[in-house]
Amino acid sequence: MDKENHTKVFIISAKIIIKGIMKSEIDKIKRIVDNIDGWLADVEGEFLYNAARNCTGKGVIVEIGSWKGKSTIWLGKGSKAGNKVEVYAIDPHTGSSEHQKEGPVWTFEEFKINIKNAKIDDIVVPIVKTSADAAKNFKKPVELIFIDGAHEYEMVKLDFELWFPKLVEGGFIAFHDTCWGQEPARVVKEFVFTSRNFRNIGIVGSITFAQKVKQNSIKDMIRNRYLLLLKMFRDFLGLYLPEPIKLAVKKIISPKKSKK
């Protein structure tokens, strides 16, 4: 075997090994979060893991709404597999207005236990405050922000307005629960899909994410609006579409895998 072919075989073998390690790690995380209360699908967790793993360190990771730590663990594990960027987990740990109807809520102790058991307490920085209170004195640049706090329109909009300026150019913002009929969907429609400050918009499960830019191109604008139409079509008619069409729409709006 000549040197060139030997190198190709080595590269292919290395990729297979890395892929196997990644799958093993993802499976371990799934087992960790399986018994933790929360509303995050595995595919969404994997997205958060990869987004955190790809952070370079030019900013920190911020999570708005941690609840008992399910999404925090995906972010923390991804960060530790990458450049070990700190994860700031912001939550007052008093639950939503719906939770509070059943009496006082306090989830911080359970959150700390879950984070420690997942062995990410060395990289997660809890901030037991509301998003608005935390934003007042938060001076660090942000490379990745995941917004999953209060879901009322005005609250999601406020989270966006408070934290978007802290996001570095090239950084990513992600919103949870952006399907049809959910209030975060209105926010991403008004402030992400139609904005000149975003490109590389994608959808994973109920998460909509986008990359911040100083000003996107005409091509980006057209693509963003096209994706918005597809998203609205999928959200509104998805339950009734034939499976081949569902898969075709999903392929178009889902992020493409990197060829690296």
Number of helices: 10
User: Span from first to last CA?
Assistant: 25 Å
Q: How many individual domains?
A: 2
Query: CATH topology of the largest domain, anyone?
Result: Rossmann fold
Descriptive account of the structure:
It is a single chain. The chain has helices at 3-33, 42-53, 70-81, 97-100, 108-117, 131-136, 153-163, 183-193, 218-237, 243-253; strands at residues 60-64, 87-90, 124-127, 142-147, 167-175, 198-204, 207-212. The protein has 260 residues and is an alpha/beta fold. Strands 3-2-1-4-5-7-6 form a seven-stranded mixed β-sheet, with helices on both faces. The protein is globular, with a radius of gyration of 19 Å. Mean pLDDT is 87; it is low at 6-18.
Summary of the model, kept short:
The chain has 260 residues and is of the alpha/beta class. The chain is built from ten helices and seven strands. Strands 3-2-1-4-5-7-6 form a seven-stranded mixed beta sheet, with helices on both faces.
List the helices and strands and how they pair.
Blueprint: H1 3-33, H2 42-53, E1 60-64, H3 70-81, E2 87-90, H4 97-100, H5 108-117, E3 124-127, H6 131-136, E4 142-147, H7 153-163, E5 167-175, H8 183-193, E6 198-204, E7 207-212, H9 218-237, H10 243-253
Parallel strand pairs: 1-2, 1-4, 2-3, 4-5
Antiparallel strand pairs: 5-7, 6-7
Keyword list:
alpha/beta, 49% helix, Rossmann fold, seven-stranded mixed beta sheet, 2 domains, 260 residues
